[in-house]
Design brief:
By secondary structure, this protein is α+β, with helices and mostly antiparallel strands. The protein has two domains: 293 residues, no CATH class; 141 residues, 2-Layer Sandwich (60s Ribosomal Protein L30, Chain: A). The protein is built from 21 helices and nine strands. Strand 7 and strand 8 form a beta hairpin. It is globular. The C terminus is likely disordered. It binds iron/sulfur cluster (SF4). The site of iron/sulfur cluster has 13 residues, from helix 19.
Length: 476
């Protein structure tokens, strides 16, 4: 196998990664931004005595940040926490602690910081340079800015500073990666897409094969856990919509139907319930895996679980399928975007569905071209133009059921690819390009601002809907 000519794709470590819900761009990204600013503060030789930290959120982060727990995540990051440190803590408890002390403690001193007054949601100033922009500033006692940093949360929990962001557009245009190039290389070297991804991780990113498999093993364990917890948990999701968790009851009803449910295609219904279980975990701030984002985290695990159960697959086959899915996610990151705030939900659930369709098609024995230009392409094609309009800024309506739709669509696309007879008219490259351009053309009200679409017309978001009592909140 000639790995010298492999075109690099973004690493699967960045596509499939542990996270806490409800949003990769609005929760995980701000958490990472907060931690980066903390590192800058800690690197200062002599912290300013009595300095004050202020954080301003712009654009989509300002519009939907409260529902997406952005302020909680920022405080966790500023307090030195990452998603991997939250086994025993919740971001809510970290926020409340910061609120009660009013001080941000660092290794080399402390600053005044009371989240409820020092985090601003600026919905008026146009966001620059990205729809998800956050600015951190350190002020002296007179209010003068001593230090500031601007970060952009560009999707999937990835954070870049403003200067890095400016160079990304050129990088995207110049990125050599293309689905066609990947497919041709696989054909030439007789590789599957999983082989390509594994070789590329080793050659381009310097990860050993052992490390790659450790990671996918962990990812699959986290994905499985999020399905199981979602199926075992009842109650009401956080937020004023009072959305009931349904996955557990739905599965019971499906199983009670027995043979009758077979007529109604039990596998796709079961996959939908698995997707809803993960999406409910995500909405509750639980542990999930970005695939490629938190909002769309249910699609891929649901499809892999139903495949494993239905075909009695081995763990190793699932790991291969995760490699395949991450290649499709990597192409979307390299050539388009997975940020709902930039391209709408087509970049989240649409790309998730394409990743899952590719993984399923690979498991069904499809060729690399079936996987990429038939399964992934078909799945993404039918989500083109999909807006992001979360009601009340919460990742619940329509997001939870949209994960189910993404899973069913992925299974269907993979099955169609297997009976396509090797015919396709539109390439995955072309569909990605159309998705990106369509996303840029969408008005910002349809891109994770909760100013348009379902979010604007739903009577669920009216004033006066009571918040739920703590004792009815989900344990997650
Ligand atoms: S509508 Fe889609 S992109 Fe928007 S928050 Fe929900 S899942 Fe994410």
């Amino acid at each position: 196998m000639d790995t010298r000519k492999l075109v690099p794709l973004p690493s699967l470590f960045g596509i499939l990664k542990p996270a806490v819900g409800p949003s990769s761009s609005h929760t995980l990204g701000p958490m990472r931004a907060g931690r980066r600013f903390r590192e800058i503060l800690e690197a200062r030789p002599e912290p300013e005595a009595g300095g004050r930290i202020a954080v301003t959120l712009y654009g989509s982060l300002a519009h939907t940040g409260r529902g997406h727990l952005t302020d909680r995540a920022l405080v966790a990051g500023l307090s030195g926490f990452g998603p991997e440190d939250l086994a025993d803590r919740t971001i809510e408890s970290i926020y409340q602690e910061a609120e009660s002390t009013g001080v941000l403690l660092l290794a080399n001193g402390g600053f005044v910081f009371r989240p409820s007054v020092d985090i601003f949601f600026d919905t008026q100033t146009p966001p620059q340079p990205h729809p998800n922009t956050v600015r951190f500033a350190l002020h002296d006692l007179q209010g003068l800015v001593l230090l500031s940093s601007v970060y952009c949360s560009i999707g999937g929990g990835v954070v870049v500073d403003a200067a890095e962001f400016e160079s990304l557009g050129e990088e995207r245009a110049a990125h050599e990666a293309s689905a066609r190039g990947v497919v041709e290389t696989c054909k030439r070297d007789r590789m599957s897409l999983a082989d390509y991804m594994l070789a590329m991780e080793v050659e381009a990113h310097g990860h050993s094969q052992e490390r790659v498999f450790d990671h996918v093993r962990r990812v699959w364990s986290l994905m499985s856990g999020s399905i199981d917890r979602g199926l075992a948990t009842e109650g009401v999701l956080p937020g004023k919509l009072c959305v009931e968790r349904r996955a557990s009851a739905m599965l019971s009803r499906l199983e009670q139907r027995g043979e009758t449910s077979r007529m109604l295609v039990a596998e796709s219904t079961r996959a939908s319930i698995y997707a809803i279980a993960v999406a409910e975990e995500n909405a509750a701030g639980g542990a999930v895996v970005t695939a490629p984002t938190c909002g769309a985290a249910g699609v891929l695990p649901a499809c892999l679980r139903i495949m494993k159960e239905s075909l009695d697959l081995t763990e190793e086959q699932i790991y291969e399928a995760l490699l395949v899915a991450s290649a499709i996610g990597g192409l979307a990151v390299a050539k388009a975007s997975i940020a709902g705030a930039l391209v709408g939900c087509q970049g989240e659930v649409g790309v998730a569905s394409a990743m899952a369709a590719a993984a399923v098609c690979h498991l069904l024995g499809g060729s690399v071209q079936d996987v990429v230009d038939r399964a992934a392409e078909t799945a993404l094609e039918h989500f083109l133009g999909l807006t992001c309009d979360p009601v009340a800024g919460l990742v619940q309506i329509p997001c939870i059921e949209r994960n189910a739709a993404g899973a069913v669509s992925a299974l269907n696309a993979a099955n169609l690819a297997m009976v396509s007879g090797g015919r396709d008219r539109v390439s995955f490259d072309a569909t990605l390009e159309v998705m990106h351009q369509t996303g840029l053309d969408l008005r910002s009200r349809y891109k994770e601002t909760s100013l348009g679409g379902l979010a604007a017309v739903s009577d669920l978001d009216r004033d006066g809907v009571p918040d739920i009592p703590d004792d009815r909140r989900s344990a997650a």
